[in-house]
Structure formats: structure tokens, C-alpha cells
């Protein structure tokens, strides 16, 4: 387990850029992203997720996997609870320590050692972006021999990190 004080800014920023760019400012639910997902679906696009880091933390820490109304309702309630009780830094810390990065690897520190053979604080920005690139579907997107899609996602994440303002963006947490 890695404490929030020891998380490199590049890793935190890469995950926020990839998963939840409004994380510092929302209350656990990104209503803009939910609306965007619904609008895209209504226009014939595939239904995509709009879960925030806070929602994913609630789900991964306390609930079972799957898509049903009971789990989603409990996830919403738990999200409100953790947003009330924990700081954004704490939520991000927990998320990064329990997130799945490959079929059998959980937590950013273990993943750093397994796939890059180095401690998390020694990761380069490109490696941090690769970590974040697999988060939407670590069963499909692989860190070991990353596909062109994973590499493209990592490049997009690096650009988003710069657009967010780099490490200064994390001061909002």
C-alpha cells in the first residue's frame, strides 16, 4: 500500500486525466460526463461508463462486480459517504491501491514493480500514462506488450496531463 504523500504527481495526474478529469471539483458524480454518455447513447453510440474515481473506489472497495440496479444504488450511497468522510487525496490513494491493472495485479505499486521493474516513484511519465491507459479494461488492455490502442491511449493521456496544467492541477485536491 502506498500513501498519498508518496504518490508521484505523474501517476496521480495520469489517472485523473484518463479516468476523471473533474475529480478535484465534483462531489462524487460527474453530471456533465453522465449527460455526455447519455447523449452519445441516444445518438446511436455504444453505452459507455461515466463513473468517477469516487464511484469506482466505492464499487471496488465495498461491492461486487456486475451491472444491476441494487449495486448501482449502493454505489451511489457509498460514493456520497466517502466523499463526505474522506478527502480527495484519500479517495485517490485508496483507488490507486485497489485498482486492477491486469488480470492478476491490483494496486499501482505492485503493478509498477511487476511491469516496469521499478518502484512507483521511479516511473517515467510515459509509464504512468501506460498504467492509466489500461484502467478502463485491464482484462483486455495489457501492460505487457502494449497494443497500438494502449499506446495511443497513453499518448492521449500525456497530452491531457499537459492540458490540465501538469502537477499544479493536483493542488486542487
UniProtKB/TrEMBL annotation:
Claim: RNA-binding is one of the keywords in the record: no
Gene Ontology molecular functions: pentosyltransferase activity
PANTHER family reported in the protein's UniProt record: BIOSYNTHETIC PEPTIDOGLYCAN TRANSGLYCOSYLASE, MONOFUNCTIONAL BIOSYNTHETIC PEPTIDOGLYCAN TRANSGLYCOSYLASE
UniProt-listed GO biological process terms: cell wall organization; peptidoglycan biosynthetic process; regulation of cell shape
UniProt name for this protein: Monofunctional biosynthetic peptidoglycan transglycosylase
Cellular component GO terms, alphabetical: membrane; peptidoglycan-based cell wall
UniProt source species: Chromatium okenii
Domain Glycosyl transferase family: 7-162
Alphabetic keyword roster: Cell inner membrane, Cell membrane, Cell shape, Cell wall biogenesis/degradation, Glycosyltransferase, Membrane, Peptidoglycan synthesis, Transferase, Transmembrane, Transmembrane helix
InterPro entries: Glyco_trans_51, Lysozyme-like_dom_sf, PBP_transglycosylase, Pep_trsgly
Taxonomic lineage: Bacteria, Pseudomonadati, Pseudomonadota, Gammaproteobacteria, Chromatiales
SUPFAM superfamilies: Lysozyme-like (SSF53955)
Amino acid at each position: 500500500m502506498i500513501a498519498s504523500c508518496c504518490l508521484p504527481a505523474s501517476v496521480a495526474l495520469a489517472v485523473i486525466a484518463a479516468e476523471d478529469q473533474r475529480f478535484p471539483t465534483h462531489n462524487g458524480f460527474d453530471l456533465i460526463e453522465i449527460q455526455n454518455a447519455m447523449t452519445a447513447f441516444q445518438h446511436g453510440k455504444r453505452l459507455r461508463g461515466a463513473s468517477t474515481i469516487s464511484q469506482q473506489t466505492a464499487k471496488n472497495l465495498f461491492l461486487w462486480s456486475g451491472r444491476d440496479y441494487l449495486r448501482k444504488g449502493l454505489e451511489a450511497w457509498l460514493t456520497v459517504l466517502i466523499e463526505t468522510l474522506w478527502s480527495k487525496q484519500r479517495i485517490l490513494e485508496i483507488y490507486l491501491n485497489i485498482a486492477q491493472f491486469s488480470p492478476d495485479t491490483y494496486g499501482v505499486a505492485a503493478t509498477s514493480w511487476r511491469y516496469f521493474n521499478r518502484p512507483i516513484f521511479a516511473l517515467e511519465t510515459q509509464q504512468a500514462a501506460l498504467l492509466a491507459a489500461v484502467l478502463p479494461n485491464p482484462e483486455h488492455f495489457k501492460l505487457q506488450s502494449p497494443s497500438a490502442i494502449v499506446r495511443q491511449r497513453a499518448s492521449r493521456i500525456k497530452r491531457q496531463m499537459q492540458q490540465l496544467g501538469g502537477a499544479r492541477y493536483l493542488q486542487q485536491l
